[in-house]
């Protein structure tokens, strides 16, 4: 089991963590949403709970809850800048079976 960050994503997260007092890393998860089932949830981790799995990639701690882990296992998170107004995380997830047309939700 593993979740990885690209160098670009790690740089972005490191920068953002300096502005978040008490944050220990990046929290990734899923929630039910959209027309195909699930959406990604990205937040800053304040702690690692009993039902969390901890990964480390590029020097960044990644915290994932037990329910989301099967849907995110093997995923790589990138951070892309298409232009000045369009930038954000890109999820390269080998578990996806279907994705909605707008790219906001997925199914596994």
Automatic annotation (TrEMBL):
It comes from the Bacteria. Residues 1-104 form the Core domain. Belongs to the HesB/IscA family. InterPro entries: ATAP, ATAP_core_dom, Fe-S_cluster_asmbl/transfer, FeS_cluster_insertion_CS, HesB-like_dom_sf. This is Iron-sulfur cluster assembly accessory protein. GO terms for molecular function: 2 iron, 2 sulfur cluster binding. GO terms for biological process: iron-sulfur cluster assembly. SUPFAM superfamilies: HesB-like domain. GO terms for cellular component: cytosol. NCBIfam families: iron-sulfur cluster assembly accessory protein. It holds the Pfam family Fe-S_biosyn.
């Amino acid at each position: 089991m593993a979740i990885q960050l690209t160098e670009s994503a790690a740089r972005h997260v490191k920068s953002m963590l300096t502005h978040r007092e008490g944050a220990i890393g990046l929290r990734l998860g899923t929630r039910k949403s959209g027309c195909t089932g699930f959406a990604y949830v990205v937040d800053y981790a304040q702690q690692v709970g009993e039902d969390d799995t901890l990964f480390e990639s590029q020097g960044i701690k990644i915290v994932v809850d037990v329910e989301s882990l099967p849907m995110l296992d093997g995923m790589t998170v990138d951070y892309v800048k298409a232009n000045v107004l369009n930038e954000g995380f890109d999820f390269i997830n080998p578990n996806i079976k279907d994705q909605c047309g707008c790219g906001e939700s997925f199914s596994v």
